[in-house]
């Protein structure tokens, strides 16, 4: 092994946070050609480093496990070799009248909506003062005072020595804004998108600029606002929506956040997960060799994709079997239910905000982070679950709605070497908020006739 081709990655664990000691038990190798590091871990070796003395105080070499091969881990388009899949046809977005939205600083106005877009070092993008124009009342009515990602909890459910404590709070421990990456025009966002730069302060107060951190665009996704057909009456159809999007990279994982505003008063919040799976090295080259619990899926030779919850230990999906895949896995399509971590599991105590899908609390300016103000030091005594035990009234109070959205990710071969985007989300939909259908009198846009030149 070439030491110059080895990368050491420290992983946080509460029991090592005394005297500034951190474990390094995630050693990764890089191929001679550059290659990737995440899919090639050195398993069984761990170090304990004292950051005050800047020296290794403990060293463990528990096992010898084959390092996964570099072949088949390349995902960059420029490095791919034939055969290739079919090329997708081009299409264009035309807005001859210009964009339908206006950006004034960080204030966005579009159709019957107006809202403010901000940025926070811990939460990342923040949507605030979202208001919709009520045609009947002749005024804007506030729908959302402030909306943002309070926390992201990522537990890896492998109890072996180098993995048992690998649970992450990506917002509270790392800062969601510090992982934000510039969005690529025509790749992350369509041609009609406008971009907003964002800023945050480093630990020493130095400002950091993230170019193209957020994009705003209109899209025609095929969603119908309303339609109806009757005999002797021509069909009526209405469409339209506005999107705000940003992207974040957390080491191996990428997150995509999408806020979608509809003229009907709905706000859809979407989350996309993609990137490179967290994997561990193993002795197996074929599923027939696995005789004990592997806590993951054999994705390639000597490569296990580790599950991120306990769904692998429960019947959490139905399967429809078909033909045999490359690694002799059973091909399947899955309908996933909602298993949870054990209530007495220490990571679950710290992430007790995931106990329920929906929480409602009276507004308190000190209750901003679902996992607690100082999540890296938390024992679970300052979480959303703890605040809710106070049994405070919410009638005639400003309230906070906390929605917990979960992904139970059991890796599969289709996720290797890079994971297709897995999407989820929820919708805030007005109910008895308006006197009648708020888009009944929405004027449809004039049609654009596009001609393609050879």
UniProtKB/TrEMBL annotation:
Signal peptide: none annotated. Residues 93-306, 338-440 form the Copper amine oxidase catalytic domain. Contains 1 topaquinone per subunit. The keyword Metal-binding applies. Topaquinone (TPQ) is generated by copper-dependent autoxidation of a specific tyrosyl residue. The active site is at residues 170, 253. Keywords: Copper, Metal-binding, Oxidoreductase, TPQ. PANTHER family: AMINE OXIDASE [COPPER-CONTAINING] ALPHA 2, PEROXISOMAL-RELATED, COPPER AMINE OXIDASE. This is Amine oxidase. It comes from Prunus armeniaca (Apricot).
């Amino acid at each position: 092994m070439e030491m110059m081709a080895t990368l050491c990655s420290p992983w946080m664990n509460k029991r090592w946070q005394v005297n500034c000691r951190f474990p390094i038990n995630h050693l990764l190798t890089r191929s001679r050609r550059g290659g990737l590091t995440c899919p090639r871990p050195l398993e069984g070796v761990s170090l304990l480093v004292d950051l005050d003395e800047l020296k290794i105080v403990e060293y463990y070499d528990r096992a010898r496990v084959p390092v996964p091969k570099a072949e088949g881990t390349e995902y960059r388009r420029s490095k791919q070799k034939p055969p290739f899949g079919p090329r997708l046809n081009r299409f264009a977005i035309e807005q001859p009248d210009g964009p339908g939205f206006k950006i004034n600083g960080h204030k966005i106005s579009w159709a019957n909506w107006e809202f403010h877009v901000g940025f926070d070092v811990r939460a990342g993008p923040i949507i605030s003062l979202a208001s919709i124009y009520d045609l009947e009342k002749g005024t804007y009515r506030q729908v959302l005072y402030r909306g943002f990602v309070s926390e992201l909890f990522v537990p890896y459910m492998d109890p072996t020595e180098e993995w048992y404590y690998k649970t992450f709070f990506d917002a509270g421990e790392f800062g969601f804004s510090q992982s934000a990456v510039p969005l690529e025009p025509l790749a992350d966002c369509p041609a009609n998108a406008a971009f907003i730069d964002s800023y945050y302060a480093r630990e020493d107060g130095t400002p950091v600029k993230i170019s193209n951190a957020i994009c705003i665009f209109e899209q025609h996704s095929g969603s119908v606002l309303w339609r109806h057909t009757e005999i002797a009456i021509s069909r009526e159809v209405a469409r339209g929506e506005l999107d705000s999007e940003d992207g974040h990279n957390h080491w191996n994982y990428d997150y995509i956040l999408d806020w979608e505003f509809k003229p009907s008063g709905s706000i859809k919040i979407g989350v996309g997960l993609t990137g490179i799976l967290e994997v561990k090295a193993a002795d197996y080259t074929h599923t027939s060799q696995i005789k004990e619990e592997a806590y993951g899926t054999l994705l390639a030779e000597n490569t296990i994709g580790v599950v991120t919850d306990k769904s692998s230990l429960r019947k959490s999906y139905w399967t429809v079997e078909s033909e045999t895949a490359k690694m002799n896995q059973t091909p399947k399509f899955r309908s996933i239910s909602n298993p949870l971590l054990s209530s007495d599991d220490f990571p679950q105590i710290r992430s007790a905000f995931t106990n329920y899908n929906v929480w409602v609390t009276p507004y308190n300016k000190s209750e901003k982070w679902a996992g607690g103000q100082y999540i890296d030091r938390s024992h679970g005594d300052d979480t959303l679950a703890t605040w809710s035990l106070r049994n405070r009234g919410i009638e005639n109070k400003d309230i906070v709605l906390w929605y917990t959205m979960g992904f139970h990710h059991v890796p599969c071969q289709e996720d290797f070497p890079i994971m297709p985007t897995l999407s989820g989300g929820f919708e805030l939909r007005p109910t008895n908020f308006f006197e009648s259908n708020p888009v009944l009198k929405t004027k449809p846009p004039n049609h654009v006739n596009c001609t393609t030149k050879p």
